[in-house]
Amino acid sequence: MRVSKRASGAIAVGAAFALVASGCSSDSESNEGGNSADGAITIHGVQPENPLVPANTTETGGGKVVDWMWTGLVEYPNDGSAPRNAVAESIETNDSKVFTIKIKQDTKFHDGTVVKAKNFVDAWNWAAYSPNGVQGASFFADIQGFDDVNKADPDGEGPQQAPEPTTDKMSGLKVVDDWTFEVTLEAPTAVWPTKLGYSAYVPLPDAFFTQKPEDFGRKPIGNGPVKFVSWEDNVLIKLTRFDDYTLRDKMKIKDVDVKLYQDESAAYSDLVSGNLDWVEQVPVSALAGDKWKQDLGDRAITTTTPITGIIAFPIYDERYQDVRLRKAVSLSINRQEIVDKIFFGTRPPATSWANPLAPGTVDGNCTVCTYNPEEAKKLYAEAGGFEGEMVFYYNADSSHKEWMEAVAQQVKTTLGVEARAEGMPTFAVFRQAVNAKQMKGPYRAAWQQDYPDVENWINPLYVTGGSSNDGGYSNPQVDALAKDAGAQADLAASHAKFAEAVKLIDADVPALPIYYYANQAGHSEKIKKLEVTAVGELDITSVEL
Length: 545
Prior knowledge:
alpha+beta, four-stranded mixed sheet, four-stranded antiparallel sheet, 15 helices, signal, SBP_5_dom, SBP_5
């Protein structure tokens, strides 16, 4: 998961609700002059898991392409400050429950059709409708009538099937006119407008509803500053400037080629040799002795980002259903040693369930993040040990081998269990197995903040049926507290409720926070100016050559 990144204009909200309009926006100069106007760059990417349908794209490979191709109601400034209006002209409410949203008139999709209020409403209804099987459906759970369009499977992957919804339209969505729609939530929700920069909430063109979603996703039509040209699997996604884009974050260059790598080290070699223009994370091998800084000089960039490296458990596998075993594994891991020896001190060890950069986070609330081998051995014995080999899985097309092997070795040494790490060839293959619930051991995960609030670190990951609750964790008490937290009209009250939920999550150990990201990125000599987003990715609208 990830965050949209472009900043454009100050958000205008009414009466009882307001967001602070602060922070920098991307440069709004025209595309005239210099080498930028007709210039092109080639940047690092990986094969997306799915066709590029925004609400069904919940991973970073496809997610960053979606973020570039679409613009939502609000956007998140690169400096991490409060969201600001993009397609939205205004978002008004008197009670944090009923919102009137006016959009800017005559912005366009890449096929030339005009973006209207119904394009948001139709897209949200489609994404929320459970028979469509959209991964991001749960992001619409705040809206009145969601339970009517989204019916849960009563026994997970069991023989029973989810009942058919009684309707395909949420009662809380109403088109007022071409440029206005009204949203009614189930309860007052202070954080809701903050979410609207996430890609699940972007509009879809009329053309989407005339074809199969997977066909649209192979030739997507967005409304952002770049439009789709072509996609060759595992090789290249080509994008080009959308010249009819009317918002402030226009492209200064013309073409962007996203080269899809299967090896992060190969991408870095291309960067150093001048055959690639951007890598958002250099490989671990380049961190030793600050080699990457020597290689890149003033083209080396370090950013602090709201991303956490995690190991998730396949709780649907009965071998991992004993909380004592999961806790024993966590307490066996010396996080400080891993960040010192593997990442050479460039990434802090995780001490909380949500990243400290997320508003509402209580730092230090991960009690199982402490290295405690004696307690780990005791809990492991109480759990009755572990039968067979414990395999820790990761995607081999990025730099995860070293730290995953270190984790497996620490668990093996502390608990005496046969443990090892195993790479799966590509991120797409890896994610397909995760989504199919076919993982046979703990596996590498990461959470890249979608929107700036602690809620984003709880609901998608640990609430039953959450969009990225891939391991199948479920605790009705956590669900109830999270729902109560979301229904608070005051952010401080909401954060307090989420803190209560986190205490239960900490006791259940559904996953293992390991480290916080600090991105080490680099660009080519061709790029003269750029901005990095709040999550460490390249803001392509800022690039000047």
